Amino acid sequence: MDMFDLSGRTVVVTGGNSGIGLSMARGLAKAGADIAIWARDTQKSASTVSELDALGSGEVIACACDVTDETTIETATQDTLDALGRIDAVFANAGRSGAGTRIPDITAEGWDATMAVNTRGAALTYKHVSRHMIERAERGDPGGKLIVTSSDQSIMGVNKSSDYAASKAAVNGLTRGAAFELARYGITANALLFGFYETPLTAAANPKFGEWIAKRVPLGRFGDHDGLEGLAVFFASSHSDYITGQSLPVDGGLCIS
Fold first, then answer.
1. What distance in Å separates the CA atoms of residue 249 and residue 238, rounded to the nearest whole number?
2. For the segment 184-203, what is each residue's pLDDT rounded down to a tens digit?
3. Angle, to 10 degrees, between the axis of helix 19-30 and the axis of helix 42-53?
4. Domains in the chain: boundaries
5. Active site annotation includes 164
6. pLDDT digits over 205-245, tens only?
7. Which of 126, 164, 185, 242 is catalytic?
8. CATH numeric code, 10-256
9. From residue 152, how far is each of 21, 86, 177, 232 by CA, in Å?
10. What pTM did the predictor assign?
11. Does residue 145 contact residue 129 with C-beta atoms inside 8 Å?
C-alpha cells in the first residue's frame, strides 16, 4: 500500500495555477487527491485542470477566486463542497510581491495591497474552510490541514521588502494562533517559509536580488520545484498529523547563512 495515497481526500490550493502552488498541486494530483484550484485567472486555471487531470485519478476543479474579496472565497468554498463533498486540507498559497519601496517611501496603498493578498487573504480562506472542518468534527469526523505559503523574509532582513516581510511574518503568527485554537477539532496549521524558487513573481524581481540570494544559499542552488510535490503530499497526509503550529524554512539553508 502506498504510504502517501491521498485518494478520497480533497485539497484546496489557492493560487494553484502557477508557481509554487502549481508545483504542490502536481504532487497532490499524483497522490490521487481530489483538488480544487482557487485563482483569479480562469483561463490559466482551465489549463491547470487539464494538466492535473492527466497526472492522477482524483477529480480536479477550478473555482474563480480573488482572495482579497471575501465573497469569492465564500463562494469558492461552497462550490468546492458542492462538487467534491468535503475539504481535508487547504494550501493558502495565493500571494503577491511587495511594493519594493524603502521604509521612507512606504505608501498606505502599497502596504495595504500587499497585506490584502498575503495576510488577509490567507486568514479569510482559513475562516471559511475551518468552518466546514469544525462542522465535520462536531459530526464525529475531525481533522483538517491548514498550510500557508510564507517566506524566509518573515525571519530575515531584506532591502526594500518591509511590507512583504511583514505580511509573511503575520501569517506565521496566524499559524500559531490557528494551531492552538483549532487543535481541539483535530485541525493542524503550519507555515512553509520558502526561500528562492523561480516563479512568475521572482521573474519580475530585480535580477540582482536573485544573484544575491544564490550566493547566500548553503546548498548552492535555488529551490527545486519537483521537491515541492512530495512536501505538499506529506503536509496533506496523515503522516503530518502531529506537526502543528510550526514555521518551517524550506530554503536550502538560506535563513541560517
1. 21
2. 999 999 999 999 888 766 66
3. 30
4. 10-256
5. yes
6. 666 767 777 788 898 888 889 999 999 999 999 999 999 99
7. 164
8. 3.40.50.720
9. 17, 32, 19, 18
10. 0.93
11. no
